[in-house]
Amino acid sequence: MQGVSVSTMAAPASGGSCRAFTLFRGDLKINNRSCMNPLMDSPFFWRHCMMRLYSINTNGTKRLDSRIRASRLFNGNDKEMDASIEISEATNEEILMFFFQLDLETRIQYALNTEQYEIAQQLRDKLTEVETQLIKQHEDKRGYSRSEAQDKSLHIISLRVNLQKAIDNEKYVDAADLRDEISKLEIESLAVSAKVLAYENASYAYRLGEKVRHKIFGYRAVICGMDPVCCESSSWMGIANVDKLSEGPNQPFYQVLVDVDDDPNLLVAYVAEENLNSIDKPDLGRFDHPYASFLFYGVDTAGDFIPIKQLREKFNRPRHEVPMDTQNGNGDDNV
């Protein structure tokens, strides 16, 4: 056996190039203990696997050759833009790490089913490492961590106890310093709480699996992730001209898979909500992308993709039910 494919979890989606992948084939043969690659013990194992998963040049400087171009008015100046400005390597890596997590979970289950418990434990240890990395990535992206917020709250409580002791002992200089430190921490804590609320109460115009069209560049894409605000780096925002958007970075941004027939060089983009339009339904046309088969089960009768359960859980999004009036199309050939 050369590897367990993610197709055990997700049915192939529409499109000829949307076939399931097998991760690190040849590096790990689950049914043979002697074939456990020493690389499994390396902290860089997941990076190696991601590169084997999809042989694509992830150097953004070499991929900025998109043929889709458009003109847009910025503050009265006609400025030519290239679709490649919205390429997001961070988003691409996040998607690949998500797939790596899914693939490891499948391999663990296979090892358990075949009573290969030692291998299952090794894979479980690797999964724990990957999940730790994903949590860190998640926190870095959002600019806060729940543990950090809890630590701040506990620290504030401790400082208030010390403040009361300083007042009782008439150490007013110390009390003043403690009061200033408490005020600073409370401001930081409020900022973290505001970010938490922004993510929990975010409102999105588009949903996971929905097909959309870019207002400027015209390509078709499918939503595979979302953030309530732009979570990219300041350098990326500068290249993407985010400050020129009417809503700037303080609007939902979407991770989208771009139809390779529309732009084979773009693959994954990070797009502001104001730059997307819904596509008239039903849209049962062919949609090709190499990641679609492990992020989606297939397409519904309206032509939108059906996200796998793990993807919905990742972004805390509900299951979408297709309205009855759109269930009159024949989408059998596209599922």
UniProtKB/TrEMBL annotation:
Source species taxonomy: Eukaryota, Viridiplantae, Streptophyta, Embryophyta, Tracheophyta
Q: Which SUPFAM superfamilies match?
A: YccV-like
The superkingdom of the source organism is Eukaryota
Task: Check the record and name the PANTHER family matching this protein.
Answer: HEMIMETHYLATED DNA-BINDING DOMAIN-CONTAINING PROTEIN
Domain Hemimethylated DNA-binding: from-to ranges: 203-307
Q: From the Swiss-Prot or TrEMBL record, what is one GO molecular function term?
A: DNA binding
> What's the protein called, per UniProt?
Hemimethylated DNA-binding domain-containing protein
Query: Origin organism of this chain?
Result: Platanthera zijinensis
